[in-house]
């Protein structure tokens, strides 16, 4: 099974090409004639798209070593050194008629908190072609469409939702949910190779048990948009326009998918009416009063959750004094540097510290690259694909983390941490 709205690609920027010698540029141009690489309107070189496998069945994770399909052996090392891998994610929709009912396949993408991404409406033709191929394979869609897309660099996690729903043609309301799957996708660069990591965060099948995680803050907005049937606008922020508000019907449907219905209360059987008791003679003493029934025992409240700082040494062999120093540092919102030899557990300890401070999954893990510029770190103006030359500000990893921190403080009162691996 492959994703219908997420693909991998290599890109050689025009700015990188201009720093090469004339002979090297000419050699790369000649090599393009023998493969699937193309040159876009801005002068960038783009590889063909690579379909991404997703976890299936009982699997929860999948990995893929990203191939670099350069057509010329002589210039392969030069091209590989200049290329940058990226994910292309889009908002896609395909439909297949079944009489009065329509089967829809939806593909949405958000950030790691399930919030909308900034996307662009000028979708590359190669992405449209690949999406059409995947949607036809999934449901034999007769009208596949891509309404927006975005390129995601290595080190950034993107949350992808893929769903199949059935709607009525007369009112376009969802009548049945056949499947909902939520994945986290991330490209990691190690040396000269690139690997995709795909993790399935939630999976729901038709007539399956309710799945409360779909209503959590990290998935709720994505799922509600998918349950609107035929959305009036993309889930992403396109040209400054936020996504539409989901209808009440989507909220009701999400409640049924996430809440277990109470068991039916059995109706009591009718009891026969006993005959009236004969009255006792006047001289007979009255019956003694019944003793009071004992009060039901009070149910003890559930114990409070364990302090994650105190249980951290149980999950990893670490000196408690190190944990205490890290706790005091992080609770003052001060940066913390972990140093040590490879393989001693720095990444695991950083992850456990972030979970103790911010909560499970409420942190951003990033691996910096020596080729990063201020645009990747803070943000900058980038060209918006389309028929005209336009620029838009794209936030960098630090800016996005600051935005997520503000959202987390407002929603939960807890911070959002940034983990930087080197």
Automatic annotation (TrEMBL):
<dbReference type="InterPro" id="IPR027417">
    <property type="entry name" value="P-loop_NTPase"/>
</dbReference>
<feature type="region of interest" description="Disordered">
    <location>
        <begin position="238"/>
        <end position="309"/>
    </location>
</feature>
<feature type="domain" description="ATPase dynein-related AAA">
    <location>
        <begin position="335"/>
        <end position="403"/>
    </location>
</feature>
<dbReference type="Pfam" id="PF07728">
    <property type="entry name" value="AAA_5"/>
</dbReference>
<dbReference type="InterPro" id="IPR011704">
    <property type="entry name" value="ATPase_dyneun-rel_AAA"/>
</dbReference>
<feature type="compositionally biased region" description="Pro residues">
    <location>
        <begin position="260"/>
        <end position="279"/>
    </location>
</feature>
<dbReference type="InterPro" id="IPR052934">
    <property type="entry name" value="Methyl-DNA_Rec/Restrict_Enz"/>
</dbReference>
<protein>
    <submittedName>
        <fullName>AAA family ATPase</fullName>
    </submittedName>
</protein>
